[in-house]
Design brief:
The complex is a heterodimer of chains A (about 180) and B (about 400). Chain A is mainly alpha-helical and about 180 residues long. Chain A has helices at about 5, 15-40, 40-55, 70-90, 105-120, 125-135, 140-150, 150-175. Chain A has one domain: Orthogonal Bundle (Arc Repressor Mutant, subunit A), CATH 1.10.10. Classes of the chains: A mainly alpha (about 180), B alpha+beta (about 400).
Chain lengths: ~180, ~400
């Protein structure tokens, strides 16, 4: 379990010290999620930092939100989508370079991220996003529903359809036992 | 296919590598947040009034032009000329040096400024606002007063003989805050309407411009305890009245709808502009034995408080045994107010229910029933919150 999964965050933080605790509890899982979405540490940490600052800026209007953790995933997911859209307007190859401070884990993760993207890009995005959230975080279906802004049954059916499509892809590639 | 098959598929896209944030990441984020806070403070300190008047007027006029298309203008005997009227109003308000507002609210004397209720009687309320730089203001109703002297705001609560001090924008006056800036009320309301959070209509009749803004109750009402206990937590309608000659705000009436019946819960009928206020208005004289409320309890946290219900049980048990040091462990005060000692000392706990959330309140409510020393059985909801820096459970109200 991550620190965030064990910490009950039941209301949107309002003070600097509350945000410090929130960052401490959620930074690793959010950076990991963004890393696998964006493929490198620098972009991932920038995206997550942007989300925390936005979360602080909007703290008053978000004070009614009780599902803080999945909502942060939602913000990170949206921010990553923006970054990816920005990249698509840049010349190919830009935005996914290895950073100078990359660790071995970063390099392995970057390879994995590339492989995951190759698979998930071949299924509908709304199914892929549910699978990413289930596979790359410890969110329950109810929390994924908050993160994607959909009902739990909808999330479950998207997950089911997406998994079926992935299974067919993997079978075709010989990557799964039949 | 079963879940085991799903897991098999998932394994192909589950990370093997474990990525953690860099060692310096948290520091970088907190620095960025601190910079954001500094920008906020800078914006607040500059304030609307410290901009040159022509900038204020220009911005207001521009905003009005943006907002106008969503207004339903008309409805009265004489159709409003829309943008011109609002722009003139913004210009007129920009010349105001002070405003003294008198009104009345259906609330309980001494209770917080947020509380309203269709069943309560009206109590008078008075607001003084000076557009100096920094601005100063005072808001007062029976049993409670807040003074902002340009540097800090201080609230004194007579019933508990306690006081709390905070930044100029500390939320002591809650929903009344916009009344301190009558020049931006209309723009704020219309902006809310533009975002779909409210419905607005504008009309002109008998020399008066009336802006009617309706909003739905905000908050989580899975338990509706907090519904209709504040303006924001009620379906409500505000009627702003502007004098068509001077274009200045001269009245506000707020009505809430409860069970299909509309009840006026607040009205401000007397707006006195450019009075000269005495300096003593901003000097709050506090009793020497006042109990100061801080942002954290003054005593060490009690052990084994696992939530709001535990905190409620701890508080009432401490009152029952008149252990006032223990009470301070779940109160944000330097000393226990005499009123609490006299009322709750020696009580007998009859029942304490489960915690629940309601409305916009960031903490929890816990139902309780206690027998006070004089035999009176009190049934109510105690408010408990832990959104303080140490995340400690403290009793916030409902007693």
């Amino acid at each position: 379990m991550t620190a965030a999964a064990t910490l009950q965050i039941e209301s949107w933080p309002q003070t600097i010290s509350e945000f410090e605790r929130l960052v401490e509890a959620t930074q690793d899982e959010l950076v990991q999620f963004a890393f696998y979405r964006l493929g490198n540490r620098a972009d991932a940490e920038d995206a997550v930092q942007d989300v925390y600052v936005q979360a602080f800026r909007d703290r008053d209007k978000r004070r009614h939100i009780t599902e803080v953790r999945p909502y942060l995933f939602r913000m990170v997911r949206n921010r990553c989508t923006d970054v990816l859209r920005g990249r698509s307007r840049k010349p190919a190859g830009q935005g996914q370079e290895a950073g100078a401070g990359d660790t071995l884990a970063d390099m392995l993760a970057r390879e994995e991220a590339g492989e995951f993207a190759r698979l998930l890009d071949r299924i509908p995005e709304r199914e892929a996003e549910v699978i990413r959230l289930r596979a790359w975080s410890e969110l329950s279906f109810a929390e994924v529903a908050v993160a994607v802004g959909a009902a739990v049954p909808t999330v479950k059916s998207r997950f089911r359809y997406g998994i079926e499509k992935l299974r067919r892809l993997l079978n075709l590639e010989g990557g799964m036992p039949r | 296919m079963n879940e085991r098959d799903d897991e098999e598929v998932l394994r192909h896209i589950q990370p093997l590598a474990r990525i953690a944030a860099s060692n310096s990441f948290r520091e970088r984020v907190m620095k960025a947040i601190a910079e954001e806070r500094a920008r906020e403070n800078s914006r607040t300190a500059r304030g609307w009034k410290s901009w040159p008047r022509w900038v204020t007027i220009g911005c207001a006029a521009g905003l009005i032009l943006l907002l106008l298309p969503m207004l339903r203008v008309g409805g009265g005997p004489e159709r409003s000329s829309g943008a011109a009227l609002l722009a003139q109003s913004a210009q007129a308000m920009s010349k105001v040096q002070t405003v003294h507002i008198l009104g009345r609210i259906r609330t309980l004397p001494g209770d917080n400024f947020e509380l309203i209720g269709a069943e309560y009687d009206f109590v008078p309320i008075e607001i003084w606002r000076e557009y100096t730089n920094p601005p100063r203001w005072r808001v007062e109703k029976p049993g409670r007063v807040v003074v902002m002297n340009g540097q800090t705001s201080t609230m004194y609560m007579e019933r508990s003989n306690s006081a709390v001090s905070g930044t100029p924008n500390a939320g002591f006056i809650e929903w009344l805050r916009p009344m301190l800036d009558p020049q931006s009320i209309l723009e704020n309301e219309l902006m809310a309407a533009r975002k779909g959070a409210a419905q607005a209509a504008l009309s002109k009749s008998n020399g008066v411009i009336v802006a009617a803004v309706s909003r739905q109750a905000q908050g989580n009402f899975a338990n509706d305890w907090a519904r209709n206990k504040s303006i924001a937590e009620s379906d409500h309608r505000c009627l702003y009245r502007f004098d068509s000659a001077s274009k200045r705000l001269e009245g506000l009436q707020v009505a809430i709808a409860v069970a299909g019946k509309e009840t006026v819960v607040a009205e401000f009928t007397d707006f006195r502009y450019n009075e000269v206020f005495p300096e003593t208005l901003y000097a709050l004289q506090l009793p020497s034995d006042v109990a100061w409320i801080t942002d954290r309890p003054s005593k060490p946290a009690p052990a084994n408080l696992n939530g709001p219900r535990d905190a409620a049980v701890f508080f009432f048990n401490a009152c029952a045994s008149e252990d006032w040091d223990a009470v301070l462990q779940v109160r944000s005060e330097t000393s226990v107010p005499m009123g609490i000692k006299q009322t709750y000392g020696g009580l007998q706990v009859i029942a304490i229910g489960e915690a629940f959330q309601s409305g916009l309140y960031p903490g929890y409510f816990v139902t309780y029933q206690v027998r006070l020393r004089d035999g009176y059985v009190k049934s109510h909801k105690i408010a408990i919150r832990n959104d303080n820096p140490e995340q400690r459970w403290v009793v916030d109200g409902g007693i």
